[in-house]
Structure formats: structure tokens, C-alpha cells
Amino acid sequence: MRNAHRVEQVRAAEAELMARLPEGALMQRAAAGLAATCARLLTRRRGRVYGSRVVVLAGSGDNGGDALYAGAVLARRGARVSAVLLAPERAHAGGLAALRAAHGQVVLDQEVGLADFSRADLVLDGIVGIGGRGGLRAEAVPYARAARRGTVVAVDVPSGVDADTGEVAGVALRADVTVCFGTYKPGLLIDPGAGYAGAVQLVGIGLDLPPADVSALQHPAVAELLPEPGAESDKYRRGVVGVAAGSATYPGAALLAVAGALHGGAGAVRYVGTAAEEVVRRFPETLVTEGGPAGAGRVQAWVVGPGGGEGARQALAEALASDVPVLVDADGLTELGRLGPGALAGRTAPTLLTPHTGEAARLLAGADGGAPPPADELAAARLATARRLAAAYRATVLLKGSTTVVADPGGAARVNPTGTSWLATAGSGDVLAGLAGSLLAAGLPVLDAASVAAYLHGLAGRHAASTPGAPVTALQVAAALPAVWRQVRASATADE
Ligand SMILES: NC(=O)C1=CN([C@@H]2O[C@H](COP(=O)(O)OP(=O)(O)OC[C@H]3O[C@@H](n4cnc5c(N)ncnc54)[C@H](O)[C@@H]3O)[C@@H](O)[C@H]2O)[C@@H](O)CC1
Ligand SMILES: [K+]
């Protein structure tokens, strides 16, 4: 599990540790870790550190201090290091002195700085870290825009990315590698910020941290959560997932949701809706029932809404009246947006909403009574949007898109690290809904079911795309689920 903490949590932990350590010790730890990563990258790129060109972009705070100290270490190993000071009168005094003592150059002319930047083997972005507010200031913008040939290493966070949210106001430095200190920051895991961070490496500095603000699953945690049948399990004990999906207009959604559900670990899939004939023809193992969820017999979770069309309203009402977890997707979300949060008020079991940003906009409008906010604004503030919806509907929300975010009404949040743009294909959301519903029926808590589903779905998208090396269909994503399930399980066995 990758755990990320907000700036205020990091600051509190740092203050507590600094009080027990000699002055500057923490910065030395950070700078040493940073310099070690830079040396590795230079060695990989040029065979050695000696003689390589390194540019340090140093802002006015401690982030610049880290970068200057790391620059000094590289200069002592023979790198030709120049530091571009973006606020010369406020540059970190200790870091600057260390760099000068190691015979590093200081550049004050922007033209020269930009030329150095463009031809450096390695650039250290120490303009601003967790103390950054708002977008990059004007003097730093040319560096974010300039062409460059070398590797950019961001110090703690790419400058211009909001550490708490991943939001980017204006331009930001695009890094190949980000070396962060003490803990991951949410902004390194959530797009658009995650897209600027490149590969993220964590350097421990000994912080004693509270529970994470946001976390991202990795293989071992997913492997532990995957449901596994015990010796006693029959199909009913393993859980039955009910899928109310598809309509005369969209029969395909039924097939795709069932395909996802069949691979999610529930013991059986019960389909209700108008596409029963097609479903059984394609997936004979599916149980089918005429009518709606109310008359369908006992299930352990409902999936309602994919391709639901005109029947979505009734199916939603019947599923929500049950006392089992309900996943609401697609047309079900449109209906829920019309009804507002009151429709979930009487629920005794968890509800999971799986909107993309357009559906999220309609849900927010349903909660606030206003006009739907622009979907691109919601996409740019993914964490805040998911949390806002979770709070308004008192439901767990899986907000789909580039970096899928899952937020619980209690405040816990997970971000999905396996996403891929291959999943932006018709019907892929139906597969995800079925998969997550199946994990709910198998007994996973709702935050786990949602985040494990997003994780497997992302891996399956990558797997399916890599096999033909071409665009994938949603059915191919569903078909890849067993392979990625095995891959995750195998990695856990290898770790044991
Ligand atoms: N506090 C600590 O103990 C440690 C801090 N460390 C480093 O210190 C950083 C935090 O240092 P600071 O609190 O000094 O903050 P930063 O260095 O991140 O930024 C604050 C400075 O940048 C300026 N600034 C704010 N927004 C800006 C913007 N948009 N564009 C340009 N300049 C802007 C501010 O005027 C201020 O001078 C961390 O990110 C990390 O790199 C590490 O050395 C580890 C230990
Ligand atoms: K930075």
C-alpha cells in the first residue's frame, strides 16, 4: 500500500521529529537520499557522475535548500553543477554556501539559466515543494515550458502541482522522477499531478505519521483482499451478485456487466432484465429471472443501472429497498441525480456510486439543486469531487477517469494506480460495475470492493491491450480478468 499524507500532517510530523534532532538533520537526510537517486540516474544515463551537467532550479524555501545541498553532493563527485536562483535574495543560505564550497556555479541571468537548463543531463526541480501555493510564479514558467534533453528530478513534488490534491493551476514542471520525503503526497498519486510526477520514489526520513489521508493499493494488499473459496464454500456461501442491467435499447450493457461479475469472485451471478435470453446464450452459467430486483430472490449485492434505459428507475427503487449493498452505475446514476440524496436516506446497507465526471456533475446538481458543474472542472479536482459526492450522498463514491478515486463518506480515500487510457472504451464501465458488485457480494467491505475492482480492471485493460498490441474492447478487458487475478496472486505467493 502506498500511503499519502496531507501537507499539514507532514508538517506536524516534521515538527515533532525536528524538535528531537540537531538543526538541519532532517534536510540532510532528505538531500542525501535525493543526491543518491540523482547519482544513480546519472550513472545510468552517462556511465558516471563525473563530468555530467547538472542544473539546480532553486526557489526561496527549504525545497530549494534540499536541491542545493544535493547539488553540492553531486559537485563533490565531479559533476558540473550550476544553480539557477529564482528568488536570489531569499535562496536557502546553508544550501547555497554548501554548493559554493563544492565549487558549484550560481546563475542569476535567466537567459543563461534557460540555456543551461535545456542542455543539462539532469535538472533538479527545487523551485517549490509542499510550501507552494497557487500556480508557478512568472519567473519559473519559462523553465516549465523550455525544451530540455536531460532527466528532470522533482524534489518532493513537481513545482506547480498542489501536493494535497494533484490539482495544477496553470503550468507545472514535468518530472521524469519525483523523490519525495517521509511519505507520498496525495498530489503525486492523483491526476493531473500524478502525470507530472513521473516515477515516484520515497526517501524515508524517520517521520512518525498518522493514518494516511489517501492510499493506493499495490499487488500484496490486493492479493490479501481477493476473495478465495474455502473448503466449506458452496456458490451461495460465496455470494450471489444480482445484476439489473441492459434494456431493449442497450442489451450489450447486460452482457458486459455479467461478464465483469462472473470474474469477481461471487459464487453466482443472477441477471434480471430484458436481455435474459442474450445473457444465457452467451454465459450459460448465469441465473436469470424475469421482472425486477424485488422478485428476484436473495442476493448478497445488487448492481443496477448499466444500460438500464427506461427500466432504470424501477430497478433502482427496488434495489435500494433491499438490505444488501447496492452499486449504482450509469442510467441508475442519472435517476439518482433526479431523486437526490434523499433516495438513499433509508438504506441500511452500503451504497456504492460509480460515476464518471459527467454523471458526477448531475449527482452534484441533484444534491445542491443548482446547475451541473462543468465536467472538466470536476476532473481537474478529482479527490475533492469524490469526497464532496460521498459526503452529500452518504455513500462510497468511485469516480472514474484518469486516476480513478474512491472516497468513503467517513473520509477514507483510495486512488487507483493501475489505470490506463485503453480503458476509455465503450462498455468498459459496465465490466467494472459487474466486477465491483461481485466483490461486494463476495463480502468485501465497500471501500475494498471498489478499489480492488478498479485495480484489477486497470490491470486487465493493460493486459488486454498488450496482448494484441492494439485497442481493446470491453469484452477483452473482462476476458483478461482471470489472468491479472492470477498475476496478483502469484506476486503475493512470491513475496511470502
Ligand atoms: N520541514 C522539514 O523538516 C523538511 C522539509 N523538507 C523540504 O522542505 C520543503 C518545504 O519547505 P518550505 O516550507 O520552505 O516550502 P517550499 O520550499 O516548498 O516553498 C515555500 C517558498 O516558496 C515560495 N512559494 C510559494 N508558492 C510559490 C509558487 N507558487 N511559486 C514560487 N514560489 C512559491 C514561498 O514564498 C516560500 O518562500 C519540502 O517540500 C521539502 O522539500 C525536507 O528537507 C525534509 C525536511
Ligand atoms: K519541487
TrEMBL record:
Residues annotated for (6S)-NADPHX binding in this entry: 62-66, 129-135, 156, 253, 307, 356, 430
Family membership: Belongs to the NnrD/CARKD family. In the C-terminal section; belongs to the NnrD/CARKD family.
Signal peptide as annotated in the record: none
PROSITE patterns membership: YJEF_C_3, YJEF_N
Cofactor dependence: Mg(2+); K(+)
Protein name: Bifunctional NAD(P)H-hydrate repair enzyme
Annotated source species: Kitasatospora aburaviensis
Gene: nnrE
Keyword field: ATP-binding, Isomerase, Lyase, Metal-binding, Multifunctional enzyme, NAD, NADP, Nucleotide-binding, Potassium
UniProt catalytic activity: (6S)-NADPHX + ADP = AMP + phosphate + NADPH + H(+); (6R)-NADPHX = (6S)-NADPHX; (6R)-NADHX = (6S)-NADHX; (6S)-NADHX + ADP = AMP + phosphate + NADH + H(+)
Stored InterPro entries: CARKD, Nnr, Ribokinase-like, YjeF_N_dom, YjeF_N_dom_sf
Keyword match Protein transport: no
Lineage top rank: taxon: Bacteria
Gene3D superfamilies documented for this protein: 3.40.1190.20, YjeF N-terminal domain
Residues engaged in binding K(+): 63, 125, 159
Pfam families listed in its UniProt record: Carb_kinase, YjeF_N
General function of this protein: Catalyzes the epimerization of the S- and R-forms of NAD(P)HX, a damaged form of NAD(P)H that is a result of enzymatic or heat-dependent hydration. This is a prerequisite for the S-specific NAD(P)H-hydrate dehydratase to allow the repair of both epimers of NAD(P)HX. Bifunctional enzyme that catalyzes the epimerization of the S- and R-forms of NAD(P)HX and the dehydration of the S-form of NAD(P)HX at the expense of ADP, which is converted to AMP. This allows the repair of both epimers of NAD(P)HX, a damaged form of NAD(P)H that is a result of enzymatic or heat-dependent hydration.
Domain YjeF C-terminal positions: 218-488
Residue span(s) of domain YjeF N-terminal: 10-213
Residues involved in AMP binding: 400-404, 429
Assembly and oligomerization: Homotetramer.
